[in-house]
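User: Predict the complex.
Assistant: Input components as received:
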Amino acid sequence: MVHAFSDADHLPNRRPDGQPASPERLPRQRRGVTPQMHGRYPDFDAMSQQEHWDDATRTMVVSRVDQVPPIRFFTKDEAIALGILLDLALAQDREPRVPVLALVDAKLLEGKLDGFQHDDMPPDPETWRQVAAGLDATAVQHGFEAFRVAPTGVQEQIVGAFAAGELHGRVWDELPCAKAWGVVMRGALSEFYSHPWAWNEIGFGGPAYPRGYAVLGPGGREPWEGEGALDVDPVTDVRERGLE
Amino acid sequence: MKLANDSRFLLDPHRRDVPGRHRMRTYPAGEEVDLVVVGAGAGGTTLAQRLARRGWRIVMLEAGPFWDPDEDWVSDEAGSHRLYWTEPRIIGGGDPVELGKNNSGRGVGGSMVHYAGYCPRFHPSDFLVRTEDDVAADWPISYDELKPHYEELEAELPVAGQHWPWGDPHRYPHRPHPITGGAEAAWRGARELGIEFRVGPVGIANGQFGNRPHCIYRGFCLQGCKVGAKASPLVTHLPDALAHGVEVRADAMATQVEVDARGRATGVTYFRDGAESFQRAAAVAVAGYSIESPRLLLHSVSSRFPHGLGNGNDLVGRGVMVQGAPQVAGRFPDTMRMYKAPPPEISSEEFYETDPGRGFARGFSIQTVSPLPIAWAEHVLADGHWGQALREYMRDYNHWYVLGALCELLPRAENRVTLADATDRTGMPIARMDYTQCDNDRANIAYARQKMTDILHAAGAQDVLTIDRYAHLVGGCPMGTSPENSVVDADHRVWETPNVFVTDGSVMPTQGSANPALTIMALASRLASRLGGR
Ligand SMILES: Cc1cc2nc3c(=O)[nH]c(=O)nc-3n(C[C@H](O)[C@H](O)[C@H](O)COP(=O)(O)OP(=O)(O)OC[C@H]3O[C@@H](n4cnc5c(N)ncnc54)[C@H](O)[C@@H]3O)c2cc1C
Ligand code: SF4
């Protein structure tokens, strides 16, 4: 049998160009939803397990999926610029998307903070606003009216420079770029990877109380846990194995 | 040994709410109690339980909620935000330390509610680093003075693990838990290099333990154990404390320790339900952990002590420490599904002691970390990946396993907790923490990072990802031999105000490479035996 993903050639560090393998090689998700429907665990749907969760957890996780809050903290312009930033930073290039911006907006509106602030940084909610302004300022340096109207290639270049801590001028002279990237990504990753669609994509079992786990050994899985897709092109694979 | 702690039998076998909570003793406002304890965490709760058994009348003030784990805790990473101390704090210095979920908790049970569960002892050498290694300071007490308390607490938590060959070799009361594929692989790699690991030690019962259920290996220890298998004061000491007349006043934030004209503490002012109150007490124990305890002392200014309580020599808040905690993740051909089982699985203390050949003083331990998805995403991000690369590493989650070191960073006077200009909702100035490493610290962290990388490569890892971070907090109100070198004496008494004690992690003069909770509890237990009956 072909062992799914036993080699690691899809990982950026293992590839000559440092780029990851294209997610398009994966089958389309068959059960439940993943962001962009990439199916690394094509038949695993964490939400289908909710009868095994305790009430407090179920209520919280289900509302996370079902109740997408409206944007109330960010202005319209900020929301557009930050939405583009988050889509690029999280590679959410098409629907279905985890509504990261709306979830971040709700957290900032509620004043839920992480418990620390660097001495040379504003409070996190203000950092988010300044990042939106900073992206526009950088787009202007590139000769565009705003970040949102710059071509995708330029937007990607700007986000790349943001990630590298290399944005300068205007807003960025006041706001430490690398720390601002940290604030934005900490917030974004927390919303993205707390969403059951992302759990489906990475094969994470999700809430586990009161059921728990029994199979701890290498290569093992509980009967209900997802099996990895084969690390091969599903079309040619099916053909080559004569399964058509 | 007969233990004077019935907590495990006082718990309800079917519900996680602490049974004594709704019928606990309450003390009328205005009545002077024997002791008011600030902070119902590791140090505060252990002290209260021990002294209540000896007849002391005690009120505990706790800034956070009185948890009902069934209702309040979730089996979810982001949803556990409320367990952490997330009120504003400012961080600075050359190597700022990120706070919040990384190191401090809030609510009855304190930070152990969401600690991982590793419960190692300190080594005898930890108490003598000035004498033996010519760094930092010796402790004013020895390992032998803590040893009986380590043994008692290991039975009370209880601690499970294999026979421990390092430091002062000892056994654990409960047998080791099963380990996952990832831990097996890492251990195999270590053996190739001649490095030994052992299973444990973890404060998680492995077998019958009163009314506490068995661990279900669900892996959410850092989110609060809804099962009640993992030790925290909420299940290990609080039930017995309540049964012996302790009142826990939750959602009560202490803002000032008050002193009279003679310089003796008279009680604690606190903020609850939007109003200020005062609890009179013959003695005060401050146990708010390494940031909030210094903050409270610094804010307790009076005409007698204009620079804050215990701060006559400008030492409060100094010497606050974190352990360097680099993590290295390894990728394996098999799925490891590291989200299963408690994150603390195995550990090695082979590098704990000074080895002159390594070029730095003191050492580190190696443990297992097993991040859940959000923490794993932060790890991937820290290695420099975003966009499609980050998503690809995240999709690969189930093939990874993560080791983490705890490096003993040395205490430095300029690493300090102070008061910032901004204030919180009670009007109290918020804390500021400045932190900068020294060269010994940097060399230690770099060496530990390389050792973990070597182990994972020897285990056959196909790729590795690294993140530099910190873990734990201790120090800030160190104990010592004189007011010139410390804030409290060997019996935790503030030198300048002898009826104020500091009884949490902040009294530790150095931190070793061990996780601190067991030692914090052992110190409180020792203090209680020294204070004796009322
Ligand atoms: C993610 C994580 C993992 C960890 N893993 C481990 C581990 O595996 N092993 C280990 O040994 N340690 C671990 N720790 C550390 C351990 O939890 C702490 O060192 C220990 O709990 C500290 O004990 P303490 O008594 O000093 O303070 P705490 O247990 O933090 O108690 C302090 C209490 O005081 C309250 N408080 C503070 N200020 C006030 C005030 N002004 N008024 C009223 N109440 C106040 C707080 O709300 C808190 O409940 C971990 C910590 C974290 C965050
Ligand atoms: S793994 Fe065990 S100790 Fe940890 S939270 Fe789950 S039941 Fe509790």
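Chain A touches chain B through 72 residues (CB under 8 Å).
Let me know if you want any component modeled separately.
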